[in-house]
């Protein structure tokens, strides 16, 4: 089984639900590098930069609007963020906020996930320059549900501060696929490599998994023995 062959799970075809099934066996890149009671951290297939990671809820849902107000969500994200920053430095976060399982905005993955991407530039500034027709509004991460009003959205923040993260939200008037991947690929000078289904970047992804999983499981052992 791989990320591009979703299976039926609870009457929904979802590859992330399959990755999180305890008895399932998967390749390293489809295995969490950090695992909690309700959330998991994966490396991203198609990682354009080292360390690109996804925070995924174990329960199937389409977006993270409710999770952004949960203490256990932020406890897990901050644990993953600490490891990611130690290994790769500062990072941006973003979400393609869909409201339908098969929306193009979910980018072919109808299971909520937050991207954490180590970058040396402002992702928000590059997003503004990439498509000047989009309208952005400042938004605390905890306000996404209120601000989105059940409209599909793009959310991005360059400075991670846990539940107090201040970023920007754009309400979409049409489904938009892999927007931030296109922005990052263009900035890196490899615009044709944005599509994770075609450009899997397995060398970067596997190296990131080895680095993060080693530190992730060591972190869990230290926590349990404290």
What percent of residues adopt helix (DSSP H or I)?
25-40%
Query: Beta-sheet strand percentage?
Result: 15-25%
Full CATH superfamily name: HIT-like
User: Which H/E pattern describes the elements?
Assistant: EEHEEEHEEHEHEEHH
Number of helices: 6
CATH topology: HIT family, subunit A
Which strand order do you get reading across the main beta sheet? 3-4-5-7-6-9-10-8
Describe the structure.
- The structure is a single chain.
- With 226 residues, the protein is α+β, with helices and mostly antiparallel strands.
- 31% of the residues lie in helices and 19% in strands.
- The protein has a single domain, classed as 2-Layer Sandwich (HIT family, subunit A).
- The chain has six helices and ten strands, in the order ββαβββαββαβαββαα.
- The chain has an eight-stranded antiparallel β-sheet with strand order 3-4-5-7-6-9-10-8. The protein has a two-stranded antiparallel ribbon with strand order 1-2.
- A hairpin with a 2-residue loop joins β1 and β2.
- α2 crosses α6 (202-225) and α3 (123-130) crosses α5 (179-187).
- The radius of gyration is 16 Å and the shape is globular.
- The protein starts with 7 loop residues before the first strand and ends with a helix.
Concise summary:
By secondary structure, this protein is α+β, with helices and mostly antiparallel strands. Helices cover about 30% and strands about 20% of the residues. The model is unreliable at about 1-10 and about 220-225 (pLDDT under 50).
């Amino acid at each position: 089984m791989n990320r591009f062959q979703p299976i039926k799970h609870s009457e929904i075809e979802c590859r992330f639900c399959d990755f999180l099934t305890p008895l399932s066996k998967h390749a390293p890149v489809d295995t969490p590098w950090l695992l909690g009671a309700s959330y998991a951290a994966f490396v991203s297939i198609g990682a354009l930069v080292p360390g690109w990671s996804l925070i995924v809820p174990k329960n199937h849902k389409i977006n993270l609007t409710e999770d952004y107000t949960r203490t256990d969500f932020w406890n897990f994200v901050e644990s993953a963020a600490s490891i990611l920053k130690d290994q790769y430095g500062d990072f941006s976060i973003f979400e393609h906020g869909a409201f339908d399982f098969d929306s193009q905005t979910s980018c072919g993955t109808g299971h909520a996930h937050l991207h954490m991407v180590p970058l040396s530039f402002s992702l928000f500034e590059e997003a503004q320059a990439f498509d000047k027709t989009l309208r952005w509004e400042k938004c605390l991460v905890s306000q996404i549900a209120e601000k989105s009003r059940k409209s599909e959205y793009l959310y991005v923040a360059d400075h991670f501060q846990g539940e107090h993260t201040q970023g920007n939200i754009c309400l979409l008037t049409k489904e938009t696929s892999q927007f931030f991947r296109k922005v990052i690929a263009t900035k890196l000078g490899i615009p044709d490599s944005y599509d994770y289904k075609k450009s899997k970047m397995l060398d970067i992804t596997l190296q990131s998994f080895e680095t993060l999983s080693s530190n992730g499981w060591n972190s869990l052992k230290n926590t349990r023995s404290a």
